[in-house]
């Protein structure tokens, strides 16, 4: 049945797709519903969170309250690989002399990866917890969104949006703002979860990338292509990939949501952590990891036919 909720992309009337979903990662209170557009396949969350509350949402609920310069440096060393389904979108596009901007840069590890390739790196991030390590590492990170960032228009060769587009309230308006920061001939590199993919259909209400209320957009191929066109951008490349860690976390989330989204505590060995979990939960954890590794060939084949769980798309003006 059609609703009175209009699709953000094509303005068609949407239909209720999933009702009363709860945050199964970080325990944000309340429930939310997902609406799907039958015309372009776009999914959207009817969020009750207003723009002025976003910095508090990410600062108070995302697991970055305890981050150090050492953890940021370690993250920068964890280079992506095709085999594990983690394309290195920072190192892949970074070159000496290029100016790069990572919107939603998290703890800043992405900026260190860009710098290691000789690029000039800048970022934006809503989570205020990253301010201290960013200062200690000498990273240029604007705390806030792209709209308030002090970076000049037409000043970046490459802008990366890694698992970010699903978080923004108005994706068309947002990409117009991003486009203004791009130099002529520059590239916008986007990764975002795939709505309608195999993992999402099989996992149902337990799909890890509902990730409400943080994710508010869910992109099908048609809706992503329409978004690019409506934003005045041209598609240079488009494919899918499935991160190795997503496969493992999806299996864990089917059995016990919210348990495995927080990292193993600092100073606790793997053996100690497994003992804390107990026989049943530790066995489940080890089996999920084993399945994740064994399934690598299957998911690389799935990615090759655009059946993966995440989109990879490169846009230009």
Question: What can be said about this structure in brief?
Answer:
The protein is α/β, with parallel strands linked by helices and 317 residues long. It has helices at residues 54-61, 69-77, 89-93, 109-116, 131-137, 171-180, 198-203, 221-230, 244-255, 270-277, 279-294, 296-304; strands spanning 2-6, 13-22, 31-36, 43-45, 99-103, 120-125, 141-143, 156-162, 182-193, 217-218, 234-241, 310-316. The strands form two sheets. It has a seven-stranded mixed beta sheet, with helices on both faces. Strands 1-2-3-4-10 form a five-stranded antiparallel beta sheet, with no helix packed on it.
Explain how this protein is built.
The two termini are 38 Å apart. The strands form two sheets. This protein has a seven-stranded mixed beta sheet, with helices on both faces. It has helices spanning 54-61, 69-77, 89-93, 109-116, 131-137, 171-180, 198-203, 221-230, 244-255, 270-277, 279-294, 296-304, and strands spanning 2-6, 13-22, 31-36, 43-45, 99-103, 120-125, 141-143, 156-162, 182-193, 217-218, 234-241, 310-316. Helix 2 (69-77) crosses helix 4 (109-116) and helix 10 (270-277) crosses helix 11. It has a domain at 51-237 and 312-316: Rossmann fold. It is built from twelve helices and twelve strands. It has 317 residues and is of the alpha/beta class.
């Amino acid at each position: 049945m059609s609703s009175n909720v209009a699709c953000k992309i094509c303005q068609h009337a949407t239909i209720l797709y999933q009702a009363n979903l709860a945050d199964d990662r970080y325990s944000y209170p309340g429930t939310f519903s997902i609406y799907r557009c039958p015309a372009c396949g776009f999914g959207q969350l009817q969020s009750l969170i207003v723009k002025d509350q976003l910095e508090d949402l990410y600062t108070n609920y995302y697991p970055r309250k305890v981050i150090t310069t050492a953890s940021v440096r370690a993250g920068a060393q964890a280079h992506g690989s095709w085999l594990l389904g983690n394309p290195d979108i920072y190192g892949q596009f970074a070159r000496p002399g290029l100016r790069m901007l990572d919107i939603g840069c998290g703890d800043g590890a992405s900026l260190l990866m860009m710098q290691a390739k000789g690029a000039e790196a800048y970022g934006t991030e809503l989570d205020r917890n990253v301010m201290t390590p960013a200062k200690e590492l000498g990273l240029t990170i604007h705390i806030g969104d792209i709209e308030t960032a002090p970076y000049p228009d037409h000043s970046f060769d490459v802008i990366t949006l890694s698992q970010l587009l699903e978080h923004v309230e108005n994706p068309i308006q947002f990409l117009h703002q991003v486009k203004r920061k791009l130099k002529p001939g520059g590239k916008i590199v986007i990764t975002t979860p795939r709505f309608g993919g195999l993992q999402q259909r099989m996992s149902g209400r337990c799909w890890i990338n509902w990730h409400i209320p943080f994710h508010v957009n869910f992109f099908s191929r048609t809706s992503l292509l329409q978004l690019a066109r409506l934003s005045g951008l041209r598609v240079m490349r488009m494919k899918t990939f499935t991160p190795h860690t997503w496969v493992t976390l999806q299996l864990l989330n089917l059995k016990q949501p919210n348990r495995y989204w927080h990292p193993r505590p600092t100073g606790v060995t793997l053996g100690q952590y497994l003992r804390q979990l107990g026989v049943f939960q530790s066995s489940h954890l080890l089996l999920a990891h084993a399945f994740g590794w064994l399934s690598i060939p299957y998911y690389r084949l799935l990615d090759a036919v655009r059946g993966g769980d995440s989109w990879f798309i490169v846009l230009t003006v």
